[in-house]
Amino acid sequence: MAVALLVAAGSGERLGASRPKAFVVLAGRPMLEWSLAAMNDAGIEQVVVALPEGEAAPEGCAGVRGGATRSASVRSALDAAPDAEQVIVHDAARPLVTPEHFTATLAGLAEADCAIAAAPVTDTVKDAGPDRWVTATLDRSRLWAVQTPQAFRRAALEDALDQPPEVLAAATDDAGLVEARGGVVRVVESSARNLKVTTPTDLKLAELLLADRLPPPSAPRRAF
Ligand code: CTP
Ligand code: MG
Q1: Ligand 1: residue whose CA is nearest its atom 13
Q2: What residue segments make up the domains of the chain, in order of their start?
Q3: Closest-lying ligand to the alpha carbon of 14?
């Protein structure tokens, strides 16, 4: 059985909106509802949402209070789904996720402890120290820009999160914690379209891309 953990407890400091980022209205619905609609269309039945203070869980989901860091929010949500053997972690800040992202990352668990959506890097990436002298140009064909969803065998995620708070706080993704514990992580190809809304420019771009999808997939349709 699979559970999806939707982490939505961040404040959205860099977006600078008047409410937490996941609850900002985007193309006609609160941002997190775009992800919930894709989860629903992927046939995921159990969803736990990590929430910021003052926000209620959307209908059909369990809600937990998020933590001070992203990893702490994942931890709280995982604890609320003790029976699930497969766990998909997704950022509410990626509203352009599709049902296929969820089904493909889950399928990836057949041969890995963790399977992550990621897009091939299109920029040339250079390595430079704090002094800005370039020391290397990386082989772009091997580089992937990591996204969510990230699917985990439960034991691997439990083990990854069972580390000191400072280690968890420094992690920008949970798959990195699995790697550090010797787990097998596999990339599932995604595209740059599954962008993360961080700044007002990202929000504008997401709005434009989601306009193609209106009316929202699981919004009630009016009968005219
Ligand atoms: N998140 C969370 N709990 C936290 C921090 C982040 O659940 N304590 C979630 C966010 O809600 C978001 C995802 O993790 O869906 C990715 O984090 P990010 O894009 O950094 O969102 P925020 O932390 O809200 O934004 P900012 O860093 O600009 O404040
Ligand atoms: Mg953040």
Answers
A1: 91
A2: 2-210
A3: 1
Q: How does pLDDT run across 108-126, given as a tens digit for each residue?
A: 999 999 999 999 999 999 9
CATH superfamily assigned to domain 2-210: Spore Coat Polysaccharide Biosynthesis Protein SpsA; Chain A (3.90.550.10)
Query: E strands within 8-113?
Result: 25-26, 29-30, 46-51, 62-65, 86-91
118 lines ligand 1 (CB under 6 A): no
Full-model pTM: 0.94
Answer whether 96 contacts ligand 1 (Cβ < 6 A): no
Q: Is the CB of residue 73 below 6 angstroms from any atom belonging to ligand 1?
A: yes
Ligand 1 neighbourhood includes 95 CB (under 6 angstroms): no
Please state, in angstroms and rounded to a whole number, the distance separating the CA atoms of residues 48 and 7.
Answer: 8
